[in-house]
User: Fold this.
Amino acid sequence: MQSYLDFEKPVAELEGKIAELKSLAQTDDAVSISDEVLRLQQRADDALKDIYRKLTPWQKTQVARHPQRPHFSDYCKAMVTEWTPLAGDRKFAEDPAIQAGFGRIDGRPVAILGQEKGNDTESRLKHNFGMARPEGYRKAVRLMEMADRFGLPVVSFVDTAGAYPGIGAEERGQAEAIARSTEKCLELGVPNIALVIGEGGSGGAIAIATANRVLMLEHAIYSVISPEPGAAILFRDAGRAQDMAAAQKITAQDLLSMGIIDAIIEEPIGGAHRKPDVVIAEAKKQIVDFVDNFGDGYGPLEIREHRREKFLAMGTALT
Amino acid sequence: MNWIDNVVRPKIRSFLNRREVEENLWVKCPESGEMVFYRDLEANQWVVPNSGYHMKIKAKDRLANFFDDGHYDTIALPAVPQDPLKFRDVKRYTDRLKENRTKTGMEDCVIVATGKLYDRPVTVAVQDFDFLGGSLGMAAGSAIVKGLETAVERKEPFVMFVASGGARMQEGILSLMQMPRTTVAVQRLKEAGLPYIVVITNPTTGGVTASYAMLGDIQIAEPGATIGFAGARVIEQTIREKLPKGFQTSEYLRDHGMVDMVVHRHNLRATIGSLVGILTKAAANDDIPASAPSRSLTMREVAVAAEGDGEDDLAADAPVAAHAE
Assistant:
């Protein structure tokens, strides 16, 4: 069952009609509908293309948060073999909001980090809607340490509204955990790549997204604060999230033009959720290409310095 | 009786001085409500003498109080893009910048200076909350990077006084990128074998705590400061529960293992002076007290003793060791 965003209403109506016609044809053989269905399908495709060609930053935010958007677990299932998730930070707890483990992508051994939002009530609760606690970031540090020691590239899938704001999270050092995870990313002597597949929510994202190469999906967003709380603070009105989304420049296209990210992975018309396989295949291709070709001839020091210099230079050339 | 001397001159004088005086003459202690004469506060490093409340202190006053004899040299900071996003909320970001520059006399919220602490060279950066909430944007990030690089060049320890509401949202993703940028500079200082000492002051929250403010070799907090990642209101709204008493204060963080010590502003010089000396294996300096008195002084005594007695943790009566169980 396709779920539609409010601005996709014209498409929803057309596709609704198509479904109606199809079910009618099933009950009554005499009716020939193929021409009509084709015509409607064409109109629906055109409408979708039209809408997605000029998505506003706020509409992109909604696409990035679409309940049917492929999440980390979908990518993992489709592209990772011998997936071996690890649990726990060895200090306090296991945090299922961040998945960490080893596996192979197209045969190549890698360490993998992924923020998982979940896709139904049960899994959303289990993964805390993708909002990690300090333990998640400390588990990430543990994985990165091993990756460094065993010479494995690190692949991060970023998809979070932000780190979890809770009493326990604060008491156990949410800020410190994020700071150490970012620090660990910057210390790695192995290459790392980060893919923002949905929401890149502030510190909760940067903690695992400080990478030699950072990619974003075409309709993903990446920001210092979510549009709603941002609007509440700066516009003194959470209802002005649309304005905040636009003013903040949170789209993949904006970030590419500012040199914050390195490339964009195109999504099928209508968003990644319409054809997950296509997006995941492209992501896989990009990861394999990075693992095979990044820093040809670089030693651990060069890999680390490449990452450090890249982040130090960020923004300095803008006017 | 000279009419001009007695009436006109004072009137002119009061007219000319009006701006300076304004409401600044008497300051209300946010904790006890007590009214304190601002000269007394100034002389006491902006710690309220009776209640011990640590008020915000201007970056320049902080530096003057911290370095030997108040002598220091400020470091020129790199120019950065001013308004890269052309950001406008209810106001233009460029207008906010202008207003804050006029208000504070600072270019942005961070000053970097070098000088001596008990005769030993140190590089210091101070973040001033008065300038747009001490928020971390390109300017502050680049200033902190410059400060850390200066310390590495001069082979000196680095002391970072932090005060910030978090990321500068008007610079969007560029403000977020200051977290990794400053972290790189901290790593390079540490790799150069130099101590990094962080002093967290009131208030320090958001992305700042999730980067350079939590990466110190030694983490010090001033008494009673609000320190946290997520804002208290956000947490309350998320969990729909009342927050525990003293949540996100310096003392709470120390009790939860997130800072090494809570140190009264008057004792920062001695505490950091001692640490810097030990960590750089410098010869002992006789001006630094050899041991901290075990009893807790009253605020009045502290004020009289001013600096150099090495006593810490006056706001909370519990000795530090009680928490090391």
Q: What stands out?
A: The longest strand of chain B covers residues 196-205. Residues 205 and 228 of chain B are 5 Å apart (CA to CA).
